[in-house]
Amino acid sequence: MTLTRGDLKQVRSIVAEELDEKLEEKLSKLKSDFFERIDPILKEVTTAREERPLIENRLEALEEIHPSGKHNLSP
Predict the structure, then answer these.
(1) Integer distance in angstroms from the first to the last C-alpha of the chain?
(2) What is the residue extent of each domain of the chain?
(3) Rounded to whole angstroms, how far apart are CA atoms 56 and 66?
(4) Are 72 and 65 within 8 A, CB to CB?
(5) I want to staple 7 with a disulfide (CB 3.0 to 4.6 A). Which of 3, 18, 65, 73 is the partner?
(6) 75 three-state secondary structure
């Protein structure tokens, strides 16, 4: 039995679908792995951004108490 052009087109279509599904599956796994690894880093960056104003306020308060890095003993 010989394959016709129609048969070849059908085989190519099936192979292309299989390859697309496998590629999509691999890309999905890659995305998932990427997001699992980057998520903790992004959480740290977010936390650092949220803490920055608190640290700046504390530093300003300490600078008022200790100008030039020294205790201010005079009232």
Answers:
(1) 106
(2) 5-66
(3) 15
(4) yes
(5) 3
(6) coil
Q: Would you call 69 exposed, middle or buried from its count of C-beta atoms within 10 A (0-12, 13-18, 19+)?
A: exposed
Model-wide pTM > 0.85: no
Number of H helices, E strands in the chain: 1, 0
**Low-confidence residues of the chain: pLDDT under 70:** 71-75
Query: What pLDDT was estimated at residue 74?
Result: 57
**Residues 66/72, Cβ–Cβ less than 8 Å:** yes
Buried b (16+ CB within 10 A) or exposed e, 21-59: eeeeeeeeeeeeeeeeeeeeeeeeeeeeeeeeeeeeeee
Question: What whole-number distance in Å separates Cα of residue 73 and Cα of residue 4?
Answer: 99
Task: Quote the tokens at residue 18.
Answer: 């299989």
Tokens of 43: 């959480």
